[in-house]
Amino acid sequence: MPAIHYILKDGAVRTVDVRDGLSVMEAAVHANVRGIDAECGGSCACATCHVYVAEADLDRLPPPDELEAEMLDAVAAERRPTSRLSCQIIIGPALDGLTVEVPATQS
Ligand code: FES
Question: Which parts pass through the membrane (predicted)?
Fold first, then answer.
């Protein structure tokens, strides 16, 4: 199973082994990773699943689609070039070892 590394607000790292097909947000919620609120449940409508993808991993992801890019304008924390909505990142073998940072605020 692919492993996803979550850097928490306090700098601690949680590593979660995730079944293919789940999103980075779903994996976080199932594993009780703190700081990913996901108020809309993954329908790309709340922006409370915002994460910063590690720069070294950005090329492993397809770019955000139009709706995700629009929702990224509504994130509570600073938007950065590495900002993504974790509900829109679907995990598969190619993402093994992906590292994402949880922002200090989500809502
Ligand atoms: S969970 Fe709401 S936008 Fe991702």
Answer: none
Ligand 1: does its nearest atom lie under 6 Å from the Cβ of 42?
yes
**One digit per residue, pLDDT tens: the chain, 107 residues?**
999 999 999 999 999 999 999 999 999 999 999 999 999 999 999 999 999 999 999 999 999 999 999 999 999 999 999 999 999 999 999 999 999 999 998 87
- Mind listing the domains of the chain with CATH numbers? 3-101 (3.10.20.30)
For the chain, the first-to-last Cα distance in angstroms comes to 31
Instruction: Please tell me whether the overall predicted TM-score, pTM, comes out greater than 0.85 for this model.
Output: yes
Does residue 72's CB lie within 6 angstroms of at least one atom of ligand 1?
Answer: no
Which ligand 1 atom lies nearest to the CA of residue 87?
4
Q: Which residues of 71-83 are buried (b: 16+ CB within 10 A; e: fewer)?
A: bbeebebeeeeeb
